[in-house]
Design goal:
Number of strands: 0
Order of helices and strands: HHHHH
Strand content: under 5%
Oligomer: single chain
Number of helices: 5
């Protein structure tokens, strides 16, 4: 069995320097997912509250009319959470690949760069979905429009 040479302290230090940016991205994604889950909880609470309103309750008809927008917001938030957690998983994989490559003394620059770009792409998709959800949220109260 082929056992690789143990990487030097300099090699490990270099890998740590290289994974600093992805580590910051991972922290940002974690905070972002927390925000998304908080928004999702508020939207689902409103949906659940709206579902129990009887059809004859005219005092709460506005909430019943908002149900399609609330469901659309929940869908966008769910998609944003999916994209963001995919970004986090890819970022973790990037860090693992960097360290494993250093251990086996393999070139990893291209693979790590591709993983970082794809992770940023998924993070961007999550941000876009948050913007779309926020647009619906704001416009349902400001102008009464139904959103994108």
């Amino acid at each position: 069995m082929l056992v690789p040479d143990t990487p030097s302290v300099e090699q490990i230090s270099q890998v740590i320097v290289q994974v600093t940016a992805p580590s910051f991205l991972l922290g940002a994604v974690a905070g972002f997912v927390s925000l998304l889950i908080s928004r999702m909880n508020r939207v689902t609470d409103r949906i659940q509250f709206g579902d129990v309103i009887p059809d004859g309750d005219h005092a709460r008809t506005r909430l019943k009319r908002e149900m399609p927008q609330l469901r659309r917001r929940a869908e966008l938030l769910n998609r944003a959470i999916l994209y963001s957690t995919t970004s986090a998983i890819l970022t973790c994989l990037l860090v693992i690949v960097a360290f494993v490559s250093a251990y086996f003394q393999l070139r990893h620059e291209y693979g790590v760069a591709v993983l970082f770009i794809v992770a940023l792409g998924f993070f961007t998709a999550g941000l876009v979905n948050l913007v779309r959800e926020t647009w619906i949220s704001v416009h349902e109260y400001v102008s009464g429009s139904s959103g994108p």
